[in-house]
């Protein structure tokens, strides 16, 4: 094992991991074998990438200093603030679309064959017989691409033309979004999209903060609280922003949407004012202002904004079935060349043999039928229509009609969590105090305890209203006594009601106007008019629960919050410090001061792994956390610590100094906060349930039984993701979970991978940061190990990381991937997957519009894959092979005909009459050979009219009716998802099935042609009627042989085609002898040839079904 080594050995030999061999390195091909087996493609791609990098060198991203309202002071040129989602421009559209079409061998072959008909010496038939199908396909493709491109252009133009108010020295001016520059002061109204990345300077809200909606950036539906820079918020008027000299120092543009480091400096004050900037002071592009009016200074524009950097360019998706047919087309072309060379060789290379070779290539060109692409495209359109009309999955939309077969070939499903697997609606389920636990059915007890506790406090307060608060020292020095259950509940509920980042919002009632819709102190704090907003739904669920038991959060701003007790009394608390949740700390805290008692308390809550070392010793926390996790609940540990005024002042000075640091700010701030996190009093353990979407558990189980491996990629916290993985049964209750420890270096990644390799049959949970480190050094090894896991959960993933994981899976496994999500942060992942599915949900329609398929609920994916994926793949495989069989059989007849008549390179039907005349006079006029053969060729063009009739009117409807065939009923496919596993093996369309069809075509073509030649009498023209009629009947019978479940439209297509042929005989006098085809002799000869060509195949099919029936036939029986 390349990664297996002891920790001691690793520490002693640091150079070891620099020379670690890659996994599977022994299986790599070298030299000529590598070049032939795909190395040439890698070589060409590398060269192209190198040339592109030379021509388009990316500008190095740097940190910047941005002066307020002075774009002209920018030292460097920054990109335009325009959004561009178009794939082409006016110059690259036609070349780009044509390249996408002709990069496949099938289309390129048709193009070369069609172009060859412009050469007189190579001309075989009429030009329209070649150019019409190819032109039709190209016209449809170009039109479709043009419409899509025009729609993208209109959407981009609409976004780039949105008007915003720009603040200048002369006042407000209107400016287009695309004309915004770095350094501009932009005013954004409520419900308006933020046009670029900005630092938040001012707001119309009195609290100095506002809410923004980030669902199109990070996929989270909860509003985020943003805080204005205090220095600019305190300015008396808006115009005063130009009366100060200030600048923002911003870090270089980067992908991470959850972090930002910068400083705000005002130079014209004495001393200069320095204020640290973090993520809470930023307004990222593509988010929406949810409250008030905001003013910000632009720091990043265009391609440097977070939203654009996390968005990947859409790519043209090609289905695996199309790639497989492309390979079969190459095999057919090879057979075509070999057959033509054999014919020329048997001619003895007489005369202009190279010209005869090209003519044979054109004569046998029906081996690769030009109607293959048309039939498949029409079939795909039919599958899309059937999916959208399925009443069992209402609202489903097919946006990419070229890859419905991909739904039947999926091996990996990568899903978002929030809004996809879950409803993102939290419900408080459990409160544990160590000795007593309360569930949903005992919440009334908590309510009673709380009511009694606050009535006692109120009575004591009213009795001692003239006395002051007892000294803090006497309280702290008092002997510890066991608290009553009532007092413990009181402390726990109060801690939950205070330790959060929730803000109550009061919507404006009808008839009330004003600048702000947010409740102030003199507004109506009625329960009906109040909603809660927070950065996490967990927070909202906790505050809603405290309201339900009697302690209500009624008001909050940056400096204070108010709670209403069960008795109606309002308690006011000053917010001294806030410590927001981070993925590294896994906890959040708040320091508040009770205005009535002047008590300062530090409250903290977080994940059990982070809090277990902070709280005082206890013997129940770990066990109860495990119990709640097994129930699928998201747990939070709540603790507190009382602080004296001296302790807090000392902490505040150190904390303020750490926040102003430019280098290692995060580490310094964390170190200061950790000084408070010691010996905290454990108050309670809470359990919150995230409700799953309808039927998520049975759907995931169905997908697992179908052999699909499911990975969950989420931007949420590790603990949350793990809980949902358990509650949704993505990870079974009995299955072990390996949580990948945070790693920051190559050495740590090496050791952790070694530890993971020793685990067997366990689910993997890994964070985005650790994933990034491992992929940097051990990409192949990590992917190889992860693919062996029954389930993988990646948490704290950015949109770019999600797309990168999808790409890695496709590259390393070669299997088909599907990504499903519902938010704007899932768009990159959806576009990177072989098949992208979007869900229309609370997070908007961005994912739905960018996806290949759009559904309304996650549970619909089961029927979409098991039923429609199966039918689309099976039907396209049968249709493609049958169309190739249709071309092969007529090419076989052409080969037999040419071999019988001295290997002449002339077409079959109409042309063979001239050949017959030529053969009869050959002995007498052998000297005229060269002249006669060219006369024959000139008179034989009309054969292609028969060929076109054969491939369109006579056989098109029955063959195309295969799109209605199904081997398993929908109910059976859903009841037995194990049937899906066979589809991923690709057995319905493989070289094995292809060669079987080739053998059938050679057998039937030979029987039809030799039978017609043997059974004709003196009239040679009767060969046309006998062979062509037998050919039509054989094709109709072969369609009937291929069909597994009959549909009334199939029966109609069979009889309609037969009727069309019979009716057309009266109008085809130049091809058929009407007197002969009405005789009994004609009928028995045609019947005999048809029976000999089809009966053995029917017998073989019957024997195969009896001796080796397919798995689905066992179920249906």
TrEMBL record:
Q: Which CDD domains match?
A: P-type_ATPase_APLT_Neo1-like
Catalytic class of the enzyme: translocase
Named cofactor requirement(s): Mg(2+)
Indicate whether Nucleotide-binding appears among the record's keywords.
yes
Q: Which residues does the annotation say bind ATP? A: 416-418, 539, 581, 605, 634, 714-716, 796, 802, 825-826
- The reply on keyword Nucleotide-binding is yes
Segments carrying the region annotation (Disordered) are 457-481
Q: Which Pfam families match?
A: E1-E2_ATPase, Hydrolase, PhoLip_ATPase_C, PhoLip_ATPase_N
Record field: compositional bias (Polar residues): 457-477
Q: Which residues cross the membrane?
A: 128-147, 331-351, 357-376, 900-921, 941-964, 994-1014, 1020-1041, 1048-1068, 1074-1100
This enzyme's EC code(s)? 7.6.2.1
Instruction: Output the GO biological process annotations, alphabetical, semicolon-separated.
Output: endocytosis; phospholipid translocation; retrograde vesicle-mediated transport, Golgi to endoplasmic reticulum
Keywords, sorted A to Z: ATP-binding, Golgi apparatus, Lipid transport, Magnesium, Membrane, Metal-binding, Nucleotide-binding, Translocase, Transmembrane, Transmembrane helix, Transport
Compartments annotated for it: namely: Golgi apparatus, trans-Golgi network membrane; Membrane
Residue ranges occupied by any P-type ATPase N-terminal domain in the UniProt entry: 75-131
Origin: domain of life:
Eukaryota
Q: Which family does it belong to?
A: Belongs to the cation transport ATPase (P-type) (TC 3.A.3) family. Type IV subfamily.
UniProt protein name: Phospholipid-transporting ATPase
Which species does the entry assign this protein to?
Answer: Fukomys damarensis (Damaraland mole rat)
